[in-house]
Amino acid sequence: MLVLTRKSKESIQIGDDIEITILKVEGDQVKIGINAPKHIDIHRKEIYQAIQQENKQASETAIDLLQQLKKLKKEK
């Protein structure tokens, strides 16, 4: 992990397309702004993890349904 120290209004550049700016530091909270291309999804980590879990459950359900359909087709 790269650890950087930044002050309010200072930025970090990631590649050519992503800029992270420290907007405000208040107590134990830091407000950041992220400039990135629209095709890049940006989520809080807990939201990202929830999305991944939902996707995993949806794919497992789809596989189960396909297996059930295959089984029904064999019975006919």
TrEMBL record:
InterPro entries from the UniProt entry: CsrA (IPR003751), CsrA_sf (IPR036107)
Locations listed in the record: Cytoplasm
Pfam families hit by this protein: CsrA
PANTHER family (alphabetical): CARBON STORAGE REGULATOR
Subunit structure as annotated in this protein's UniProt entry: Homodimer; the beta-strands of each monomer intercalate to form a hydrophobic core, while the alpha-helices form wings that extend away from the core.
HAMAP family reported in the protein's UniProt record: CsrA
NCBIfam families for this protein: csrA, PRK01712.1
Protein name, per record: Translational regulator CsrA
Organism: Priestia iocasae
